[in-house]
Design brief:
elongated; alpha+beta; single chain; Elongation Factor Tu (Ef-tu), domain 3; binds flavin mononucleotide; seven-stranded antiparallel β-sheet; NADH Oxidase; 7 helices; four-stranded antiparallel β-sheet
Length: 270
């Protein structure tokens, strides 16, 4: 359907109220409402946000405003073509659809970043298990460019924190694994990153699956954190640290929410 809306700033958000009640119009008595919209020939998908009393609005990101060609943050009397997103029409695809469950899938959905640890040490069998999971990761052309630098040395772990406020958990982690990529073995930087990221995720899942907890710490190329790692662990020039996993026995419990977001799924086309 076509309608006219005013795109306006409200607080720190830019939004447009719909001039109709979408629950009635689209016959969606409960749950989230996803729509496909067109403004100024720009197509986008959105989840409608309720503002109470049957009033619903669409939020506009800075990028969307730019795409639509709105320089300021307001534009009145804009033509909006709005349809229910077909994904929401498929009964099997809801925000809590029927799914298969098993140990692997359970680990994937329940893994959470753990940043608080007890002072209990981990043993070599646990470490072997975690490293093996990393080494089982897929890699482009099976080049396996990853290397894992392991340390349980508190002084070293503390020394690499430097000015990075996001890795303070290294003060209490039982160990850390620095996932590194060999730039000679894999010369395409995107693939080196992808391969090492796959290894990092395998490591995190293995940690979670054996009752430990861990967190992925990013290592930005050229940062002080990156330089500190290179220096502390004597990494050769062709070896790039890509991520660091700090882990140990968890001293915090986390329950993951349902993250099956319909708005992130695009069937057949965007
Ligand atoms: C590339 C990357 C870099 C990250 N860097 C950090 C970090 O430096 N410090 C940290 O505490 N968490 C870091 N995380 C963890 C994320 O904050 C975390 O995965 C996200 O908040 C989702 O939470 P969850 O892992 O519990 O699902 C990083 C995650 C990724 C994928």
């Amino acid at each position: 359907m076509n309608c006219t809306v005013d795109i306006k700033k409200e607080g720190n958000k830019v939004l447009a109220y719909l001039p109709f009640d979408p629950r009635t119009e689209f016959n969606i008595p409960k749950g989230s409402i996803y729509v496909k919209c067109v403004i100024e020939n720009v197509q986008f998908k959105s989840k409608l946000m309720s503002r109470g009393s049957g009033r619903y609005c669409i939020f506009f990101s800075k990028q969307l405003l730019k795409d639509i060609g709105i320089d300021g943050e307001e534009k009145l009397n804009v033509n909006l073509n709005i349809e229910l997103d077909t994904i929401a029409d498929i009964p099997q695809l809801t925000e809590s659809p029927e799914m298969i469950n098993n140990e692997v899938l359970n680990a994937i959905s329940q893994r959470a970043s753990i940043r608080k640890f007890t002072d209990k040490d981990i043993d070599q069998i646990q470490l072997n298990t975690i490293l093996n999971a990393g080494l089982c990761a897929p890699s482009a052309m099976n080049k396996r460019p990853f290397h894992f630098v392991v340390t349980k040395d508190r002084e070293k772990m503390v020394s690499i924190i430097g000015d990075n406020p996001y890795v303070k958990m290294l003060r209490s982690a039982a160990a850390c694994i620095i996932v590194c990529g060999d730039k000679v073995v894999q010369g395409i930087p995107e693939w080196l990153l992808a391969d090492c990221s796959a290894a990092t995720q395998n490591i995190l899942l293995a940690i979670h699956s054996i009752g430990l907890g861990g967190v992925w710490c990013g290592v930005k190329q050229g940062s002080n954190f990156y330089k500190g790692i290179v220096k502390e662990f004597n990494l050769p020039k062709h070896i790039r640290p890509i991520s660091l996993v700090a882990f140990g026995y968890p001293a915090e419990e986390k329950q993951q929410p349902n993250r099956f977001e319909l708005g992130k799924i695009h069937l057949e086309s965007w």
